[in-house]
Amino acid sequence: MARVLLAEIERFPIAGTFTISRGSKTEAEVICCTIRDGDHAGRGECVPYRRYGETMESVMSCIDAARDAVEAGADRAEIARLMQPGAARNAVDCALWDLDAKRSGIAVGSLLCPAGTAPIATAYTLSLDTPEAMAAQARANAARPWLKVKIGGGGDEARIRAVAAAAPASRIILDANEGWTPQDLAANISIAAECGVSLIEQPLPADADEALRAADRHVPICADESLHTAADLARLVGLYDAINIKLDKAGGLTEALALRDEGRRLGLRIMVGCMVGTSLGMAPAVLLAQDADYVDLDGPLLLSRDRSPALRYDGSLVHPPSRELWG
Question: Can you give the residue range of the structural domain that contains 67?
């Protein structure tokens, strides 16, 4: 029986509203790609990255453009040559990983982590809001070991101080989503250091990266929007201390593994992050993150309804995926 590729748009409600410096949303829109080959089927999930101009329609179109090659038997290496990095390639690449695991009976986790996999602690994201509302979020989650705090704009000093005071035992990652400016960078880093922040993620717009070269590193700085694939890394050395690897930016697990390994070689710390998606989208990232320095794979925790089967979360501990879910 010939291969068949299917792709469909799915929507999952968010528990409340998720807000970052670029806007708010109340549901996670994902695309699920399924590749069937005889009795076996592999799945991959992606979230279009609107920051880079991706839409549900454009990503579906990219997947459709790869249909003939996939159905003719293209492997992951061929897909990497045929498709550009981004959400569409992520869905296809992860579906092929899953399909290979289902056909061979060899779990992806055993290939990537021969010594075994284990639960890992993920950060939990606090949505951008007023200092008072963010303090309430932090207080409700103060038992979590890591909090990722969305900031980005006027009033950030009050937000940072409010969250740090409300969750004194939690380690804090600040995520500005490009919301700071070169003019307020030094003051904001100083405030973050005073409040014991562990990491600052993408403080400046990607086209203002050079301002980081002279920044005092009171707190390590992590690249997100400035990073897509391993080809970007050489430019980031000396500007950033860490990199945030997301499958939807890299274009799948295959490129993400290369990105992780090259980042390590260059002396950068590794963070594995996510978009707001379901357990299917997080599953390959959980395996990628087994030895990461920072983990932000809380997407399903932000949803009011996940898919089934789902990843197992015990508080902030996320367990490796079951074979039924992925891989």
Answer: 4-106
Structure tokens at 114: 């021969």
Q: What is the CATH number of the domain that holds 73?
A: 3.30.390.10
For residue 199, the domain's CATH number is 3.20.20.120
The pLDDT tens digits of the residues spanning 270-326 come to 999 999 999 999 999 999 999 999 999 999 999 999 999 999 999 999 999 999 999
pTM beyond 0.90, yes or no: yes
Tens of pLDDT, residues 155-180: 999 999 999 999 999 999 999 999 99
Give exposure, 68-78, as e/b (b: 16+ Cβ within 10 Å). ebbeeebebee
Q: Give the DSSP per-residue string, 32-55.
A: EEEEEETTEEEEEEE---GGGT--
- pLDDT tens, position by position, 200-239: 999 999 999 999 999 988 999 999 999 999 999 999 999 9
Residues tagged active-site: 150, 246
Q: How far apart (Å, rounded) are the C-alpha atoms in residues 110 and 113?
A: 5
Mapped onto helix, strand or coil, the DSSP state of residue 158 is helix
Q: Which helix (H) or strand (E) holds 149?
A: strand 146-150
- Decide if 199 contacts 169 (C-beta within 8 A): no
Amino acid, res. 207: D
Length of the chain: 327
Question: Are residues 93 and 126 both part of a single domain?
Answer: no
